[in-house]
Amino acid sequence: MTDILAAPATGAARGDAPAPASPTTQTQTQTQTQTQIPAPAPVSPAAPESPKSPEILEAPESPETSRPARLAGLARLGRRVRLGPLVRRAPAVVLLAATWEMLPRTGAVDPVFVPPLSEVLRAWYDLLLGGQLLEHFQASLVRSLTGFGLAVVLAVPLGLAIGWYRPVADFLSPVLEIFRNTSAVALLPVFILILGLGEPSKIVFVFYACSWPILLNTVSGVRTVEPLLVRSARSLGLGPLSLFRKVILPAAVPTIFTGIRLAGASSILVLLFAEMVGAKAGLGYLVQDAQFSFRIPDMYAGIITISALGLLFNLLLLAVERRFSTWRTT
After folding, report:
1. Residue 113 and which of 47, 84, 100, 281 are 20 to 30 A apart at CA?
2. DSSP label of 114
């Protein structure tokens, strides 16, 4: 019974050698082995190494990277150039202010007629707070700028025409020679008689005084252009209009602006005289009224304001001149 119930043991259990597998079984086994063992992944070609970033590479700075540094350096250089003349000239102004302050206090001059600078500045501040200084300053500024602007608008084109066109010069020269030798101060009574004591007489007075420096310097600037420049331009085929626009006018700009700056100073000087003669407002009226009322510090405060106005006017004209003559190297 035991022999019947016991199942026949396999060769592996009996220790016998395994029976050789059939070809079909070997094929299935190889297929399963190939399925279970994954095939090696294809090796892709090595990717080229990416270049290092500019932050890692120690290379010279590119123009884009170094531009802010260059701009900062130029700004520092510009500040040094602008502050250089100011620093050199400041001691003279400080010395003048100290002398003005000390001479009256030491008794070298009468403090009644020449008060110390500190008292003058205090009077100037009081006039500014009271509004009188701004009122007189505005009146003088409007008259001066109006007459000066009219002189520039009319005298520059007329000077260009006289300097460039010989027939125009021959026609106008006799009249110009008569009026250029007539003082503007001598004609002020004529302007007052014809135009009255109002604003027109003062504006025309300033216009007349400013016209001559601008006109004469414009004519001189056109006529003194380097002849070699003119001959070279003509040899290149430039016509009269192109020659005037591209050669004559740029070359005459420095001389023209010299006349304009002289006219700017004249516009303030002659206006003060006109305001002292007949006006109810203006810096000239302020100075004269303070003198008549024996308010000496107020008088000097008005004089300081006039000097400051002339200085600002000149600096403005210098800036405009540099803007229109950027081609100049000096």
Report:
1. 281
2. S
Neighbours of 113 (CB within 10 A): 9
- The pLDDT tens digits of the residues spanning 224-233 come to 888 888 888 8
Residue 12 included in any domain: no
The answer to whether 175 and 211 have CB atoms below 8 angstroms apart is no
| Tens digits of residue pLDDT in 198-238 | 889 999 999 999 999 999 999 999 988 888 888 888 888 88
pLDDT digits (tens, 9 = 90+) for 290-325: 999 999 999 999 999 999 988 888 888 888 888 876
What Rg do the C-alpha atoms of the chain give, in angstroms? 46
Domain count for the chain: 1
Structural domain contains residue 176: yes
Residue 93 belongs to a domain = no
Full domain range(s) for residue 155: 139-324
Whether 62 maps to a domain, the answer reads no
Q: What is the CATH number of the domain that holds 209?
A: 1.10.3720.10
Q: Which residue's entry shows tokens 């008292």?
A: 119
Site of tokens 């040094």: 80
Rounded-to-integer distance, Cα 278 and Cα 289, Å: 12
CA angle 266, 172, 255 (to 5 degrees): 45
